[in-house]
Amino acid sequence: MGWMTNVMGLLVTFGALAGILSWISGPSRGLLWTAREGRLPRVLGKTNRNGVQINILLIQGALVTLLSSLYIVMKT
């Protein structure tokens, strides 16, 4: 039964990683589509050579970092 615990731990880890990746890529893909339609600034509609919306991901990362850092300064 000990080996099954390791297998389940690995599967849970892969599932959590897949969930995190979908939370990151989903909104950024939607914003890319909106930017390409002209409803957002054109700079957000640009992608790199691999088709990744780098400007949107950088802004998204900065916002998440800023909001997450609020936990450091807030009192419990």
UniProtKB/TrEMBL annotation:
Subcellular location: Membrane
Residue ranges of the TM segments: 54-74
One Gene Ontology cellular component: membrane
Membrane topology annotation: Multi-pass membrane protein
Keywords assigned by UniProt, alphabetized: Membrane, Transmembrane, Transmembrane helix
Transmembrane helix among keywords: yes
GO molecular function: transmembrane transporter activity
Leader sequence residues: none
Statement: the UniProt record of this protein carries the keyword Transmembrane helix: yes
Name this polypeptide is given: Amino acid permease
